Amino acid sequence: MFPESKVLLIGTAPVHAESIAMAAADDSCHVKLNHDALTLIGRSREVVEHVAASGERVYGLNTLLGSGRDTAVEEGSILAYQVQVVRYHNSGVGPYLSRAEARAVILARLVGFSRGGSGVRPETARFYADLLNRGVHPAIPAEGSVGSSDLTQLAAVAAVAIGEGEALDASGVLVPGAKALADAGLQPLTLHAGEALALVSANAYSVGAGTLALLRLRHVARLADVALALSLETIARYDGGGDLSPFSPAIQSAKAVDGQRESAAAVRRLLSGGWLEDVRPEVSVQDPLSFRAAPQTHGAFRASVGQLAAALDVELNGRGDNPLVDLESGQMVSGGNFQPMQLALAFEGLRLALAHVGIPSERRIAKLYPPQRAIRAKHLAAAAGSGLVQEELPGLLWYSAAGLLAELKFLAAPATLGAPTLSADVEDHSTLAPLALQQLVKSVDAVEKLLAIEALTASYLLLEAGAAQPLGKGTAAVVGRLADVLADRPSAPELVEHARRELRIVVDGLRQGGNEW
């Protein structure tokens, strides 16, 4: 994990996705390349210079790119060609990446340099560290990559590095890249042979922004168990349900699914110390599947999140460069490691998994609606003749939940199968990993809102029921936090957004308090 000293030291040891995400999200994080990394980068550069001096024809080093792969670049034009490569690929469109996403892109590429396959000079790697440490925020368009290297996003970074392109200042205003460098006390970088391609030919957007998505997905895994636990206590009070036997060690040990056991154990911890732990003869023998089989669904989702973490670690610690600098043979070798298929499929699968998390959540919300309606009728009767009731919980949040579920199902459709062939049919397959990631982020937004609605609805009903039976220690903490949100009586959009913020604080706080979910 990211050290408390706010320094991320990049060496040749394995790097993990969580560390990249935490460093990217924290502007105060200082990034340093250690001696081992700089030595490896230097050795990699020596191979490039040896191959260039030999006159051997190597893709992108002394040839054009794509369909021009067999056209030589004259030796006297190679340095000018570096600038041409950056300008040509700086063609992205759409909204600009956030500051955290831009930092994640630069950081992921910097880690790529440290693996020894890119052949950039040590001073080029240090320059990318300086971009992070001095707060330079390149304006990186989100759209333009088909997932066979994130060429356009990385070219936007490289353009600023050479004193061109655009950046965003601290106020979010576009400024010329040269001004952003000058304000940070940096001189534009002069690229040497082969460096332009090394700067742009990687999957640093999909990988870097993917690490940020990973942290959010892990929060969703915990939030789903919190919403479920709250709904269990609610149906126990209003509908005679809340059977905890499906969450028992006996059931969970009967099937070797780690995520499922973790989810069930999290629910038991949340409910520990509460009245649901007592044997209740009146309890229904079985709750609906949206309650009873939730650990199986949440567990499968957790497994998918684990697969994404593994795929990100593979990309971070691998060498996806083309051509690849192979230190063992002293050669530059053409290949296809820039095609992050495993990562793209992880993004794809998670959107489907999120839709499955959303389906039972929406069904549980629907089952909480009748008692909510009954409470509203009671309040209206009590207020007869004295005016309208000002409700703490908007009455049709269930409908919003249904709409969010429909969006989740729509977003679960495949994104990676639609890439056309490009560059005179030379680039005839792409992963579309960036599109899959962007759709995944939308899915995360939707499911967070859906689970927040479930948590709000359950908490409202538990507060209305009073304190006759004690809540679990974990669920009581959540209800207490959401009670203040409900008491403010904000509009529905403000209510859900406020709840999302508070749930992030309390859910992560419970985890840090010793309950690792």
UniProtKB/TrEMBL annotation:
Keywords: Lyase. The keyword Lyase applies. Pfam families: Lyase_aromatic. CDD domains: PAL-HAL. It comes from the Bacteria. Gene3D superfamilies: Fumarase/aspartase (Central domain), Fumarase/aspartase (N-terminal domain). GO terms for molecular function: ammonia-lyase activity. Signal peptide: none annotated. The keyword Lyase applies. PANTHER family: HISTIDINE AMMONIA-LYASE (PTHR10362). This is Aromatic amino acid lyase. It comes from Paenarthrobacter ureafaciens. The lineage of its organism: Bacteria, Bacillati, Actinomycetota, Actinomycetes, Micrococcales.
